[in-house]
């Protein structure tokens, strides 16, 4: 589904060159939910932007469905951390969700159904006529997620989507993502700096190193498909996996090999 | 401490204090404004009766209002008012349409923006009045003369604002539009245009005022038909009261124009943080 091969990004800074991402290779299979964690400033967002076709890599390639990414790929949706800036404040919730559907050649009724369905999926049924800024932060991010799933993407890229919401809302949104993922059968790549979140959500966690970034470790999360905020997080297996990811990140911070 | 907060505190801590001492209500601003206008009118009435000013050049409020009443009954006055409003509205419409279209176009094409920036910065500060000789050469003393000055003055106000607006597109919103694979038309109408709209409305507000100033100025200086021309005629014929009456009318137009544009702004930007409910109440 998503193949990243030797991808890297250099930035020019003050006449020199800063290698943000050195070389990263990994593969995400169809229908997988993969989390990417790493120490802060490790180029997680750079990686996601290259996969999303929003940033041209300096070397290497990202391939979605076997096709090289040289612009935003068809069937790929991105959910950004800054929901308040990602939703258009001049459009009501329904219009925001409907906007990307307009070029799909659907009838007005089909679009309306899809919007209603997407809003139902994120527990915002009937909120079409509300303005985004009348909603809480967590609800705004739900709208952004509804907009992303409304055009039925096969790949969902999420860039620290819950970093700006409170802990309680965050737990709800995490469960929402697990739920959407299992119901819709989409492939999800979830970028986060939160170790617990990555273990709770993912089937697999990719740990990145500090810049120049490489893939440091890959940890399989064998917690099973049914996860629960209380039971899963208090299970011994969760603690072990969490510790494993934590150790890798600490080592990455120290720059150990 | 704000009165609101001290009020809350007293409600919570001491009921008796709260009920026994009602706060004096502030005078409504509208009333204060009306009082100010009344005072100005009264001063205008009394001053010419003192030796301080010469009533020949500064007639009493009563005389001016009398001249205004006479004018309101004359067809020429209404024709002049219509001429001025026509020049204003037509000139403003042309300036806004051209400024918005060119602003969006130039703003969305970085090479064009870079190529035109210095030319715009050179042309913009040229006072419109400096074009009077050109206007007279081209159009004589007819309406297009006024239009030329109005459009030139108002156009830059709009263009510069729209250019700033297009530059202000939020990078996250731009990334969102790209990742949603919105069409170029959707990006223009759903992202660039709404982002630039608050700036455009500011430009329209400035342009509307400037357009009125230039319309009256052009009529006054060139002698093209309108209120400005009537003011010049009143002045040369020694009808000071009528001159002031017409100046009052021009002032009232300015107030109405500003009011109208502000209403339009609120209507067009109901979603904007500066206009919408949550930021205000």
TrEMBL record, chain A:
Q: What is the lineage of its organism?
A: Bacteria, Bacillati, Actinomycetota, Actinomycetes, Glycomycetales
| ABC transporter domain mapped to chain residues | 2-235
Q: Which InterPro entries match?
A: AAA+_ATPase, ABC_transporter-like_ATP-bd, ABC_transporter-like_CS, ABC_transporter_ATP-bind, P-loop_NTPase
| SMART domains membership | AAA
**Transferase recorded as keyword:** no
Alphabetical keyword list = ATP-binding, Nucleotide-binding, Transport
- The molecule here is called NitT/TauT family transport system ATP-binding protein
In its keyword annotation, does this UniProt entry include Transport? Answer: yes
Which residue windows are transmembrane per the record? none
> What Pfam family does this protein match (any one)?
ABC_tran
A GO molecular function annotation here is: ATP hydrolysis activity
From TrEMBL, chain B:
Secretion signal: which residues? none
Task: Indicate, by first and last residue, each region the UniProt record lists as having compositional bias (Polar residues).
Answer: 1-14
The alphabetized UniProt keywords are: Cell membrane, Membrane, Transmembrane, Transmembrane helix, Transport
InterPro entries linked to this entry: MetI-like, MetI-like_sf
* Regions crossing the membrane: 30-49, 87-110, 122-140, 146-166, 196-223, 243-261
Q: Where is the ABC transmembrane type-1 domain?
A: 81-265
Give the UniProt subcellular location, in the record's own words.
Cell membrane
Which PROSITE patterns does the annotation name?
ABC_TM1
- Which stretches of sequence are listed as region Disordered? 1-25
Report any one BP term from Gene Ontology.
transmembrane transport
Membrane-topology descriptor: Multi-pass membrane protein
Gene3D superfamilies, alphabetically?
MetI-like
* CC terms in the record's Gene Ontology section: plasma membrane
**What is the similarity comment for this entry?**
Belongs to the binding-protein-dependent transport system permease family.
Protein name per Swiss-Prot or TrEMBL? ABC-type nitrate/sulfonate/bicarbonate transport system, permease component
């Amino acid at each position: 589904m998503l193949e990243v091969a030797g991808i890297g990004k250099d930035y020019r800074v003050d006449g020199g060159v800063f290698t943000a991402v050195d070389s990263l290779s990994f593969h995400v299979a169809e229908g997988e939910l993969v989390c990417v964690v790493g120490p802060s400033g490790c180029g997680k967002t750079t990686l996601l932007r290259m996969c999303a076709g929003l940033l041209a890599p300096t070397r290497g390639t990202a391939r979605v469905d076997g096709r090289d990414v040289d612009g935003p790929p068809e069937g790929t949706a991105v959910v950004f951390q800054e929901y308040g800036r990602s939703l258009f404040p001049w459009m009501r919730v329904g219009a925001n969700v409907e906007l990307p559907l307009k070029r799909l050649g659907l009838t007005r009724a089909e679009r309306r159904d899809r919007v209603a369905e997407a809003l139902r999926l994120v527990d915002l049924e009937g909120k079409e006529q509300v303005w985004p800024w009348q909603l809480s932060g967590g609800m705004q991010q739900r709208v952004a997620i509804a907009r992303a799933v409304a055009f039925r993407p096969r790949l969902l890229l999420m860039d620290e989507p819950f970093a700006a919401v409170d802990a309680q809302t965050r737990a709800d949104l995490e469960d929402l993502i697990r739920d959407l993922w299992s119901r819709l059968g989409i492939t999800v790549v979830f970028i986060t700096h939160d170790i617990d979140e990555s273990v709770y959500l993912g089937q697999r966690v990719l740990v990145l190193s500090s810049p120049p970034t490489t893939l440091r470790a890959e940890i399989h999360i064998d917690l099973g498909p049914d996860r629960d905020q209380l039971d899963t997080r208090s299970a011994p297996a969760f603690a072990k996996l969490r510790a494993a990811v934590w150790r890798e990140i600490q080592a990455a911070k120290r720059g150990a090999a | 401490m704000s009165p609101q907060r001290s009020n809350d505190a007293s409600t919570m801590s001491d009921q008796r204090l709260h009920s026994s001492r009602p706060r004096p209500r502030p005078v409504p601003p509208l009333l204060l404004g009306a009082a100010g206008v009344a005072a100005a009118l009264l001063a205008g009435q009394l001053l010419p009766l003192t030796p301080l000013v010469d009533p020949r050049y500064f007639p009493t409020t009563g005389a001016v209002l009398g001249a205004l009443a006479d004018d309101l009954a004359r067809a020429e006055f209404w024709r002049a008012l219509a001429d001025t409003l026509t020049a204003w509205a037509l000139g403003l419409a042309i300036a806004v349409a051209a400024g918005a279209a060119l602003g969006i176009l130039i703003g969305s094409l970085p090479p064009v923006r870079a190529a035109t920036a210095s030319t715009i910065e050179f042309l913009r500060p040229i006072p419109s009045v400096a074009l009077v000789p050109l206007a007279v050469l081209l159009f004589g003393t007819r309406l297009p003369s006024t239009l030329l000055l109005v459009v030139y003055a108002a156009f830059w106000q709009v263009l510069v604002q729209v250019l700033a607006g297009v530059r202000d597109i939020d990078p996250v919103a731009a990334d969102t539009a790209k990742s949603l694979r919105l069409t170029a038309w959707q990006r223009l109408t759903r992202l660039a245009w709404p982002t630039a709209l608050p700036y455009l409305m500011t430009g329209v507000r400035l342009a509307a005022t400037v357009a009125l100033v230039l319309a009256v100025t052009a009529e006054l200086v060139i002698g093209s038909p309108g209120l400005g021309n009537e003011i010049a005629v009143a002045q040369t014929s020694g009808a000071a009261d009528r001159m002031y009456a017409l100046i009052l009318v021009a002032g009232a137009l300015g107030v109405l124009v500003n009011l109208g544009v502000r209403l339009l702004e609120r209507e067009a930007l109901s979603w904007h943080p500066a206009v919408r409910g949550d930021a205000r109440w």
